[in-house]
Amino acid sequence: MGMERATDRLFLAVVPPADIADVTRRLRIELKLLGRPLATEHFHVTALHVGDGVGLPHEAIHMGTHIGAQVTLSPFRVRFDQVMSFSNGALVLCSGDGVAGLELLHERLAEITAKVGLKRRMSAYTPHITLLRDNQVVPKHPIEPIEWTVREFVLVHSLLGRTIHRHLVRFPLIER
């Protein structure tokens, strides 16, 4: 019996300001890339991958909501000051040291996930924002920093291969 291909993904993410679309268009022109920018509503920084599956079981939404609701963190600043290509052709914004708050959010979410016994993929966490996909490889280089204050994160339902993201639950970060 073969494994069915996943159709749905659930993840917790930080959503950048909408003007990230302008930055993307500008970088695409500057770098002479042909790839189409992601839709504005798809820009995000994954904080934690909750799971993939066929359909979206109610239990998965419950688990993602349960994990997100347990985070206690104050709002924080992020700064993306570099652009580069990943090996999969994704052009991404990344940062040398402006993502400590995102790393802390990821760490907290991972700790909560471990406590509730949810198994997850273990891999190095590299906070980034995918802007577009292109065949041209762009070496890592500095750009004018893009900064904002993160005041919430969201539980996102992605319909794989159909370029649809639905924000299911918002989790505000509260000044402590």
Structural class: alpha+beta
Oligomer: single chain
* Helix percentage: 10-25%
> What is the CATH architecture descriptor?
Alpha-Beta Complex
Strand and helix map with partners:
Elements: E1 8-14, H1 20-30, E2 45-53, H2 58-69, E3 76-85, E4 90-94, H3 100-115, E5 129-133, E6 141-150, E7 152-159, E8 164-172
Antiparallel strand pairs: 1-2, 1-7, 3-4, 3-6, 4-5, 7-8
What does this structure look like?
By secondary structure, the chain is α+β, with helices and mostly antiparallel strands. The chain has a single domain, classed as Cyclic Phosphodiesterase, Chain: A (Alpha-Beta Complex), CATH 3.90.1140.10. It is built from three helices and eight strands, in the order βαβαββαββββ. A four-stranded antiparallel sheet has the order 2-1-7-8. A four-stranded antiparallel sheet has the order 5-4-3-6. Strand 3 and strand 4 form a beta hairpin. The mean pLDDT is 90.
Give descriptors for this structure.
3 helices; 36% strand; alpha+beta
Short description:
This protein is α+β, with helices and mostly antiparallel strands and 176 residues long. 22% of the residues lie in helices and 36% in strands. It has a single domain (8-172), classed as Cyclic phosphodiesterase (Cyclic Phosphodiesterase, Chain: A, Alpha-Beta Complex), CATH 3.90.1140.10.
